[in-house]
Design goal:
This protein is α/β, with parallel strands linked by helices. It folds into three domains: 132 residues, Rossmann fold (3-Layer(aba) Sandwich), CATH 3.40.50; 241 residues, tm_1862 like domain (pyruvate-formate lyase- activating enzyme), CATH 3.80.30.20; 55 residues, Nucleic acid-binding proteins (OB fold (Dihydrolipoamide Acetyltransferase, E2P)), CATH 2.40.50. Helices cover 36% and strands 23% of the residues. The protein is built from 13 helices and 19 strands. The strands form five sheets. Strands 2-1-3-4-5-6 form a six-stranded parallel sheet, sandwiched between helices. Helix 9 runs parallel beside helix 11 and helix 12 runs parallel beside helix 13. It is globular, with a radius of gyration of 23 Å. The two termini are 39 Å apart. The chain binds 5'-deoxyadenosine and iron/sulfur cluster.
């Protein structure tokens, strides 16, 4: 294939989790050499990719209504003599590919997560006006090998090390859409991390659906892989997401106390504070175990902050179960959290369980839970005021002398400073906070990267 001369407009809409954010970046990267430039307007785009999420019903519905809107752009552009290619990627593509092809004739290409590296070829075929419509998928290993990670801001990057899940929580579609767990060999992960560091990346977030279940060849488990990643010169900060409580091994917990590059912030989904519900969810841990992991983490790394996920209104959840969730939240104190109403997903065991909870009850419980969680988040951010935090500079602010960066706790920090450049880690005295970010003033630099 030859390189295009005039840039073609590419619009990508990303739904769902960080795996999808990561995949969208990779799709953009793989298409860039073929003359595709990113636009934020779908109406003028030559190629529209919807990178979809199947985890809750609402996310799936959104895809079909967005396809309806895109059909109008496509018809209008066709009247102007222009071709618009519409591709559906991600988990809805994987789970409902054939149904999309049937229900939405306006879609040219359906591509599952394993086939993204073939996108240029697939799109060229779909855009050829032959009327050919394609449904594509390949194996997990092929995808990892063909698409090197890149950093959107040059300083932070995701590095995907594991895909899929064998946990089979009874509410979740991931084991069906993303398939069985697959871990990349350690050598490939380390080589990719080294290449990111060479390009100036300072903070790597190791990514996987069940990242701490990593069991790739050439490493003795996930803690060993992290330890070796931390030895790479240039990588100053490490994070990982999303982890499962049953995979929090002693070695991994201990590493939080031993490895300063491992940031003191962990996303550890709990889903519910009721043992009865955790059992029905097939979470494979109880509340006592979750609290114990948190205690052990805090003993190893006293400044660690936690984030989590909750589902409210799981089938059979009573007011008493929900109270147990509120109690857990009050006891642990989360720096941030995601919470969702249970959404019944066809084909999952929970969908056919007894005791589905009324929508209005779910909504009311979610509102109560979110009120507590947001006040905890505000309090956590406010508690940083007066402290000096090491901030990784990610770029310039809008006004001169303003910079933005990331705290160890993943908070966005806006601060005043004229000297620091992207990639530096500088001390910032925090003077203000809001629900989602911090403001501050530079104190001193702890690391200058030439
Ligand atoms: N309904 C509601 N929330 C869900 N999640 C996963 N499946 C469902 C579902 N069927 C939530 C869980 C998970 C997060 C990624 O999405 O909290 O941790
Ligand atoms: Fe889904 Fe449970 Fe696997 Fe997470 S651990 S991806 S919630 S099945």
């Amino acid at each position: 294939m030859t390189e295009a001369r005039t840039p073609k407009q590419l619009f990508i809409e990303t739904y769902g989790c960080q795996m999808n954010v990561y995949d969208s970046e990779r799709m953009r990267d793989v298409l860039a050499p073929f003359g595709y430039a990113l636009t934020d307007r779908p109406d003028d785009a030559d190629l529209v990719i919807l990178n979809t999420c199947h985890i809750r019903e609402k996310a799936t519905e959104k895809v079909y209504s967005e396809i309806g809107r895109l059909r109008e752009h496509k018809t209008r552009r066709a009247d102007e003599g222009k071709v618009t290619t519409i591709a559906i990627a991600g988990c809805v593509a994987q789970a409902e590919g054939e149904e999309i092809m049937r229900r939405a004739p306006t879609v040219d290409l359906v591509v599952g997560p394993q086939a993204y590296h073939k996108l240029p070829e697939l799109i060229a075929r779909a855009a050829r006006k032959t009327g050919e419509r394609l449904l594509a998928d390949f194996t997990a290993q092929e995808k990892f090998d063909a698409l090197p990670a890149r950093s959107p801001d040059g300083v932070t990057a995701f590095l995907s090390i594991q895909e899929g899940c064998d946990k089979f929580c009874t509410f979740c579609v991931v084991p069906y859409t993303r398939g069985a767990e697959f871990s990349r060999p350690a050598a490939a992960v380390l080589a990719e991390a080294r290449s990111l560091a060479d390009k100036g990346v300072r903070e790597v977030t190791v990514l996987g659906q069940n990242v701490n279940a990593y069991h790739g060849e050439g490493a003795e488990g996930f803690a060993d892989l992290l330890r070796r990643l931390a030895q790479i010169e240039g990588i100053e900060r490490l994070r990982y997401t999303t982890s499962h409580p049953v995979e929090m091994t002693d070695a991994l917990i201990a590493l939080h106390g031993e490895e300063p590059k491992l940031m003191p912030y962990l996303h550890l989904p709990v889903q519910s504070g009721s043992d009865r519900i955790l059992k029905a969810m097939n979470r494979k841990h109880d509340v006592v175990r979750y609290r114990q992991i948190v205690d052990q983490l805090r003993a190893a790394r006293p400044d660690i902050a936690l984030s989590t996920d909750f589902i409210v209104g799981f089938p059979g959840e009573t007011e008493k179960d929900f109270d147990a969730t509120l109690r857990l939240v009050a006891d642990i104190g989360f720096a941030s959290a995601f919470s969702f109403k249970y959404s019944s997903r066809p084909g999952t065991p929970a969908a056919v369980m007894a005791g589905h909870v009324e929508e209005s009850v779910k909504a009311e419980r979610l509102a109560r839970l979110q009120a507590v969680l947001s006040s905890q988040q505000r309090a956590f951010n406010a508690a940083q005021e007066g402290k000096s935090l090491p901030v990784l500079v990610t770029g310039e602010g809008r006004k001169s002398g303003q910079k933005h960066g990331r705290s160890p706790y993943l908070q966005a920090v806006h601060f005043e400073d004229s000297e620091a450049g992207a990639g530096d880690i500088v001390d910032v005295r925090i003077v203000g906070s809001s629900q989602n970010s911090l403001t501050g003033v530079r104190v001193d630099s702890t690391l200058e990267v030439a």
